[in-house]
Amino acid sequence: MNPRADASPAGAVHSSHVRRFTRAEHWVHRVTGALMGVCVATAACLYIPQFAELVGRRELVVRVHEWAGLMLPVPVLAGLVSRAFRRDLGFLNRFGPHDRVWLRAALRRDKDPESRPAGKFNAGQKIYAAWIAGATLVMLGTGLLMWFTHLTPLMWRTSATFVHDWLALTVGIVLAGHIGMALGDPEARRGLRTGSVSRVWADREHPLWRP
């Protein structure tokens, strides 16, 4: 794979900052994060007795959880109207030799930037994006089976409940790791918040990216 395959179109003006995300991408991430947060919070209220006692009104919590789950794919689908968002989805879906180098360095806990070549998105971000997208679809499918109980046999509903509950726990753990990584990288958070990052950070963390 060409290591410059994650490059953005040429012509950007050289300055101390580079454009990383558009406003559309900012809102896709923000709304998706808010919906995911509602799903996790309501799930906690449904399954952890101490939270359930604090909140009460279980029927309302169930309805909020169901509708937030149904709405989860909407921001991504709406974001497809943005060319920049579609281009970044292409970057996230492209795994090359430099990503394998990045993963080997991560497994060795080698934090030397020269050992972790990355395009616009590193291998960890690509794996996370693919995993959370797949998990969301599975959660949506199993949730629908649990919601429309009259449409499926009891065995299907029981299996769907088992998968939904345990995958929800896994999603919560993975999201906690994702948030922890974000808290440790203020510049990456700034990129999502404002759309721009420092050129120094981009050159250090994503040396194969050519904005």
TrEMBL record:
<keyword id="KW-1003">Cell membrane</keyword>
<feature type="transmembrane region" description="Helical">
    <location>
        <begin position="27"/>
        <end position="52"/>
    </location>
</feature>
<feature type="transmembrane region" description="Helical">
    <location>
        <begin position="64"/>
        <end position="85"/>
    </location>
</feature>
<keyword id="KW-0812">Transmembrane</keyword>
<dbReference type="GO" id="GO:0022904">
    <property type="term" value="P:respiratory electron transport chain"/>
</dbReference>
<keyword id="KW-0472">Membrane</keyword>
<protein>
    <submittedName>
        <fullName>Cytochrome b/b6 domain-containing protein</fullName>
    </submittedName>
</protein>
<dbReference type="Pfam" id="PF01292">
    <property type="entry name" value="Ni_hydr_CYTB"/>
</dbReference>
<dbReference type="InterPro" id="IPR016174">
    <property type="entry name" value="Di-haem_cyt_TM"/>
</dbReference>
<dbReference type="InterPro" id="IPR011577">
    <property type="entry name" value="Cyt_b561_bac/Ni-Hgenase"/>
</dbReference>
<feature type="transmembrane region" description="Helical">
    <location>
        <begin position="127"/>
        <end position="146"/>
    </location>
</feature>
<dbReference type="GO" id="GO:0009055">
    <property type="term" value="F:electron transfer activity"/>
</dbReference>
<dbReference type="GO" id="GO:0005886">
    <property type="term" value="C:plasma membrane"/>
</dbReference>
<feature type="domain" description="Cytochrome b561 bacterial/Ni-hydrogenase">
    <location>
        <begin position="20"/>
        <end position="183"/>
    </location>
</feature>
<feature type="transmembrane region" description="Helical">
    <location>
        <begin position="166"/>
        <end position="184"/>
    </location>
</feature>
<keyword id="KW-1133">Transmembrane helix</keyword>
